[in-house]
Specification:
Length: 350
């Protein structure tokens, strides 16, 4: 991967995008939307950018569609519409569209250029930046994928106006994570916010992206430092995978699952990486303030812990965690004794 991440901000960036697409002389331009971004974002995008689009490709919204079946349909659509190696794909949507669209672009004819235009908070501060593209394998998250940066990411907070409060909170969890792993001042600012709304969050998007890009530029392929971005994700992904399979239980969004993961892993950190108990309590109280408590039964826990063996950070069968030594100071590759998991869930529930 090139050691460069191109990000532009604000509505004026769309004029730049138009010029860039023109100067690159793409043979055809495709835009990928899901069923919601087609309704809420496509017209606005086309009016900002005023480019001639070859075709708009559509996928059904939702994590359950981030799979090979959707990819196959999109590869066929591209092929049918005459896409060649000099075509470009613009992903207009949340993390599902940018992850899957990026993967489709990276694999179509061994790779065509793609652009990300994130339309959810989560995709702005996290998913669309850093080059991780991919799809799920059954309920197992992000098992198949490629790391490659988009040509450019365009971040424009106006999209957040049509986003639900739950989706905003889902993205906010990743912003809190950036504070916890890298910037205590940022954490303190975010945790004391009284309201999560597009207006209140707009100013904090850029600093969050800055924390992520700093890490990714230093370690694009996750050999070491980049692992810190997985704080909360070891248990969080297992929880997200578990709830994806539970149709009778309430739906859990990515950030909501990661929020639970961060509380659980903060407890583990008090035993395994020296995080102070008061810091763990501060973290738990912050997440309690912003997120409703999920009732994870003892039976659920067993299934969640079974899913841990699929975590991509595992090496030779060992489950490796990213934990905190203190707020702003992560520790990677920490092994955790299994007997602590039950207590971590009790801490979350308390
Ligand atoms: P999402 O893409 O499913 O979007 C959430 C919902 O909001 C969807 O229903 C979508 O259609 C809708 N939506 C999108 N933009 C909208 C808008 N402006 N107005 C109204 N509705 C809109 O999910 P997400 O939370 O954006 O992203 C989650 C995904 O991101 C997960 O698959 C996760 O694994 C992935 N992710 C990837 C990375 C990475 O580094 N690649 C990092 C974090 C998360």
């Amino acid at each position: 991967m090139e050691n460069q991440i191109n990000i532009s901000y604000g509505t004026s960036a769309f004029l730049g995008l138009k010029e860039e697409l023109t100067s690159k002389q793409y043979s055809s331009i495709f835009v990928l939307v899901d069923s919601n971004t087609k309704d809420h974002c496509l017209d606005r995008f086309l009016s900002f950018c005023s480019i001639e689009v070859t075709a708009v490709l559509k996928m059904a919204a939702g994590e359950e569609n981030k799979n090979l079946t959707t990819c196959q349909k999109l590869w066929e659509d591209l092929s049918f519409q005459g896409a060649d190696r000099n075509s470009v794909l613009i992903n207009l949507g949340g993390g599902v569209v940018t992850d899957l669209g990026g993967f489709v672009a990276c694999t179509f004819k061994r790779g065509i250029d793609f652009y990300n235009i994130p339309t959810t908070l989560l995709a702005m501060v996290d998913a669309s930046v850093g080059g991780k593209t991919g799809i799920d394998l059954g309920a197992l998250k992000n098992q198949i994928g490629i790391i490659r940066e988009p040509q450019r990411v365009i971040v424009e907070s106006g999209w957040l106006e049509t986003l639900s409060q739950e989706e905003l909170k889902s993205g906010f969890a990743e912003m809190l994570k950036h504070g916890l792993i890298a910037n205590p001042d940022y954490w303190n600012t975010l945790r004391t916010l009284v309201e999560i709304s597009p207006e209140k969050l707009t100013d904090y998007i850029k600093p969050s992206i800055a924390e992520k890009t700093k890490v990714v530029l230093e370690d694009p392929y996750e050999k070491g430092l980049r692992k810190i971005l997985n704080f909360g994700h070891t248990l969080g992904h297992a929880i997200e995978s578990f709830y994806l399979t539970q149709t009778e239980k309430p739906r859990l969004l990515h950030g909501e699952a990661i929020a639970i993961g961060m509380v659980l892993e903060s407890y583990l950190a008090t035993h395994c990486s020296g995080l102070g108990k008061s810091a763990a309590v501060e973290i738990k109280e912050t997440f309690d303030k912003f997120y409703s408590k999920v009732n994870i039964t003892t039976e659920d826990r067993v299934s969640i812990l079974n899913l841990l063996r699929h975590d991509k950070k595992n090496k030779a069968g060992r489950i490796n965690f990213v934990l905190l030594k203190a707020i702003g100071e992560p520790d990677i590759d920490v092994e955790v004794p299994q007997e602590l998991f039950g207590k971590a869930f009790e801490f979350y529930r308390s």
